[in-house]
Amino acid sequence: MLSGLNHLTLAVTDLDRSVVFYSELLQLRLEAKWDKGAYLSLPGLWLCLSLDPLRNPEPAADYTHYAFSISAENFPLLLARLHAAQVAPWRDNRSEGDSFYFLDPDGHKLEVHVGDLASRLQACRQAPYVAMEFFTAP
């Protein structure tokens, strides 16, 4: 049986640029780096950057994205740092909790979000999406 998410691997076209983006701007911990990749971490997350010159840097048209948790206290600080670095947004926030949706240097869609599954479900119970069903008790 599955016990959790093991790791995320993102294809990148410029490893050094991506290591700087994730380790310095987003402040993930750089664990290891080699000629074609790097491992970074946050509590509960192992992120692998894998050099792939075939990566299409255009963001996909779909909603697939990777969201990172952030406290309400730190949200405006990171938002200011991302704006100062001229990080491109890709969507406006349309859900509960503060969120900022942005692109990494290779067009991967990312989000920083204040809140968790419990806060999202609570908000959805108050204003459910169309045809939404709940399978757990509040």
UniProtKB/TrEMBL annotation:
Enzyme Commission number = 2.5.1.18
**Which UniProt keywords are listed?**
Metal-binding, Transferase
> Which enzyme class?
transferase
Q: Which domain of life is it from?
A: Bacteria
Task: Give all residue intervals belonging to the VOC domain.
Answer: 4-115
Q: Does the keyword GTP-binding apply?
A: no
Query: One Pfam family from the UniProt entry?
Result: Glyoxalase
Give the matching InterPro entries. Answer: Fosfomycin_Res_Enzymes, Glyas_Bleomycin-R_OHBP_Dase, Glyas_Fos-R_dOase_dom, VOC_core
- The yes or no answer to whether the keyword Translocase is present is no
Care to name a GO molecular-function term for this sequence?
glutathione transferase activity
| PANTHER family given in the database record | FOSFOMYCIN RESISTANCE PROTEIN FOSX, LYASE, PUTATIVE-RELATED-RELATED
What NCBIfam families has UniProt attached to this entry?
Fos_GSH (NF000496)
Q: What is this protein called?
A: Fosfomycin resistance glutathione transferase
Give the species this sequence originates from.
Answer: Pseudomonas hefeiensis
Its ancestry begins with: Bacteria, Pseudomonadati, Pseudomonadota, Gammaproteobacteria, Pseudomonadales
**Which gene does this sequence derive from?**
fos
